[in-house]
Amino acid sequence: MLPAAILWDNDGVLVDTEGLYFEANREVLETVGFPLTPALFARVSLAEGRSVFELLADRLGPDDIEALRAKRNYLYGRMLENGVRVCDGVRECLAALHGRVRMVIVTGSRRDHFETMHRATGLRPYFEFAVTHDDYTRSKPHPDAYRAALARLELGPAQCLAVEDSTRGVAAAVAAGMRCIAVPHHLSREGDFSAAWRLLDSVCALQTCLDLG
After folding, report:
1. 184: which residues sit within 8 A by CB, 6+ positions away?
2. What's phi and psi for 122, nearest 5 deg?
3. Contacting residues for 55 by C-beta, under 8 A, at least 6 apart
4. CATH number, domain at 102?
5. CA-to-CA distance for 148 and 198, rounded, in angstroms?
6. pLDDT per residue over 24-46, tens digit each?
7. Does 90 lie in the same domain as 76?
8. Are the CB atoms for 74 and 189 separated by under 8 Å?
9. What are 138-172's pLDDT values in tens digits?
10. What is the pTM (predicted TM-score) of this model?
11. How far apart are CA 171 and CA 123, in angstroms?
């Protein structure tokens, strides 16, 4: 039986942007002599839900860190302007679900970055709305983003299902009271997904998991 609504994470689930975000962070941190590796990024950002700029707290003051963060945001935005790849199986899965279940996006991306990355994906019509970082206070793994989405849907968490790619995302969905399907990607697959309701290799497998035929 399908849930009343499916709440989709965006980066790493719908669009292949986690690698771009890592690269933007890596390039900016490199300017101050800090080597950000994929493994460190995965642990700090994707598993723990912390900003990689916290790693500079013993080197730089708050103003310098905010200046670097602004540079990262600008660089990432420029990268997104070149277009992003829709993750494998997403279009087919969304088409199969469209009209059968309500769908929304719950993302940690800023609204401007989110709008830029979806200018040409063609995915937005499948979703009622998107909750972005501008719409809540505490980022994942806190449940604020999902609670904001549930409030707009006017549905209880037991009626809904989340789809996430990271440990922090699964933690946020579960903390909001929902079941969560985890679909890790190459940067997040070493995370702890024990709290997930199902662990899938790809979005392609979601149709079988939900018995869509």
Report:
1. 165, 166, 191, 193, 199
2. 75, 10
3. 29, 34, 36, 40, 44
4. 3.40.50.1000
5. 23
6. 999 999 999 999 999 999 999 99
7. no
8. no
9. 999 999 999 999 999 999 999 999 999 999 999 99
10. 0.93
11. 25
